[in-house]
Amino acid sequence: MSVTLDGDNSRLVPDRAPGRRRIRDSRGLRLTRRLLRGPRSESVPSLTGAACTFLGLIDIAAGVFPRFRHSRIHAVAEVLPGTLGYFAAALSLSAGVLLLLLAHGLRRRKRRAWRAAVVLLPAGAVAQFGYRHSVIGALLSLLLLAVLVRSRGEFAALPDPRSRWRALANFVVMGAGSIGLGLVVVSAHPRRTVGDPGLSDRLEHVLYGLVGSEGPVNYVGSAGNTVDYSLGTLGLLTALTTAYLAFRPEHPVARLTEDDERKLRALLVRHGRRDSLGHFALRRDKGVVFSPSGKAAVCYRVVNGVMLASGDPIGDVEAWPGAIERFMDEAKAHSWTPAVMGCSETGGEVWTRETGLDALEIGDEAVVDVPDFSLGGRAMRNVRQMVTRIERAGYETRVRRVRDLSEAELDRVRGAADDWRGTETERGFSMALGRIGDPEDGDSVIATAHRRQAPDAAGCPDGTGEAPDPHGAPRPSGPYGDLKAVLHFVPWGPDGISLDLMRRDRTADPGMNELLIVAALRAAPDLGVRRVSLNFAMFRSALARGERLGAGPVLRMWRGLLVFLSRWFQIESLYRFNAKFRPRWEPRYVVFRSTRDLPRIGFAAMRAEGFVTARLPRPLRRPDPSPAPLQRSPAAVP
């Protein structure tokens, strides 16, 4: 240790300067090594995706705007990979569009996007050196190529499920984008345009240019050739990408096979009472992954790149980690965003412990214990009065297992449920089975409400002289007879049922749903049912706490927003409806990887549930390819 003399006190003071110098030297050495080593492999996909997006925008700007080519920004941009020089506006435009198309795939670690980038970057390097003799631009292209090759293991994601209908979607999207960009190209030369063409003339010129023809707009000098080549390139890109999507092999969406369904039903027989959403895993538009032992499974659907599971895993809790691991491996193999909607507290704990994901409470499930249910008391007065009034109005109810209904009755129930849906789009994913009356679902329960009619002198129900059905079934007096409302419940283990759908005739008296729920709860003991799961109420705790005395301003504001959104999504109305029956509330959670994924997961969940749809016109829709012995349209969540 070196020392210095501190004035008259003659104290020994340590000299820390060499140690500080060594710290600075080590930091500089680490920084140098980090620069030489390059970016970490796991961050390469996001960095290359961002670089492709930036370079694509630069190339498009260089190809469209003449002033950009003479600016200081373009002087710097000329050495970046992809830009092809002043005299190659069409090539620069095409390179920019291709880079933008590849950016999303590179961020998602797609192998096909990596292969396309590996082909495009050497071509860009040759163009850099051949067109402008830019050594720096060529070296930067090769440097980015070296980074991609070095990190090729990070780009191993398999293709997403796809069909040839994506070719039509690509034609519409790319066509609209080409028309919009073409209008910008046509309007980017105001000083060289002959006359003052209007918007219709410019649009006509774009449409002609996309197919390689001359339009009504004329230019002075070489601007006309630049516009023509640019429009022709955009039209060629649209045609080539559409043809590629139309003729490439299909990767069908995962569906539940008969063998998968048989295995899931066996797991539900042994472990079905654990989760009220277990039976909804049998939707046939879901895929499934099993644990290595086959004792547990996770069902999912892929929507917008989100691998969306619903409810808890099916099967033995001890085997859940194996199924969850398979689920995460499948998500990683395709670079899907993993998410779970509506899992229980136990399920959320297992998911977060095994995967490192996070969980957020999104609502509560209403569960009524049949032995504790009663219409007596002041709290149930409104429901009691409504049920009594409807029964006096001439309505009666029937609650039966599906296996006890005849085929004619099931056909009438299915037709009524479809007709009373109210919208063209079916809703439901996490709490909807998607079919009624399947022979494999014989334990399901159907509750129906019927309007009694006064008999005439001959004893016939509507004065027509026709005798009633000898088996007690109502004789049809309309499209669906006297059927006025339907509730469908699926099994929840050996002693429970879970609400699947609620449908009623809009012309019937109000309170049909309350009447049928009370009828189902009254008939539950005879059916061996002790637990009934009703609707799911999103953000119930926020609505309940926000209306209490002493709620803070933030909570009141959040409740006000939920009430406002209830105009479209039935958030508050479902909570109010469920609360009528004095249930116990079971919290449900969404499991996600990162907070920034929540908007994407929320949009995917809304699409899966049917709240957001992007459907083709009816004449262009493809029929459902899945085999169906009976109706397989998804059932709506009320």
Tell me what you see in this structure:
- The protein is α+β, with helices and mostly antiparallel strands.
- It is built from 19 helices and 14 strands.
- The strands form two sheets. Strands 3, 4, 5, 6, 7, 8, 9, 10, 11, 12, 13 and 14 form a twelve-stranded mixed beta sheet that branches. Strands 1-2 form a two-stranded antiparallel ribbon.
- Helix 5 packs antiparallel against helix 6 and helix 16 packs across helix 17.
- The longest helix is centred in the middle third of the chain and has 25 residues.
- The radius of gyration is 33 Å and the shape is elongated.
- The N terminus and C terminus are likely disordered.
Topology:
Blueprint: E1 3-6, E2 11-14, H1 17-37, H2 44-64, H3 72-77, H4 89-107, H5 111-132, H6 135-150, H7 165-187, H8 199-210, H9 223-247, H10 258-271, E3 287-290, E4 296-303, E5 306-310, E6 314-315, H11 320-334, E7 337-343, H12 345-355, E8 358-369, H13 381-392, E9 395-401, H14 407-419, E10 445-451, E11 483-491, E12 496-504, H15 512-527, E13 531-538, H16 540-546, H17 553-569, H18 571-579, E14 584-592, H19 598-609
Parallel strand pairs: 5-7, 12-13
Antiparallel strand pairs: 1-2, 3-4, 4-5, 4-6, 7-14, 8-13, 8-14, 9-10, 10-11, 11-12
Helix pairs in contact: 2-4, 4-5, 4-9, 5-6, 7-8, 7-9, 11-12, 13-15, 16-17
Sum up the structure in keywords:
638 residues, alpha+beta, twelve-stranded mixed β-sheet, two-stranded antiparallel sheet, disordered N terminus, disordered C terminus
> Between the first and last Cα atoms, what is the distance in angstroms?
79 Å
Number of helices: 19
Count the E strands.
14
Give the rounded overall mean pLDDT.
77
Query: Rough shape?
Result: elongated
The Cα radius of gyration reads 33 Å
SS strand fraction = 5-15%
> Sheet bearing the most strands, described?
12 strands, mixed
Report the helical percentage: 40-55%
Identify low-pLDDT runs.
1-15, 82-86, 455-476, 616-638
The secondary structure category is alpha+beta
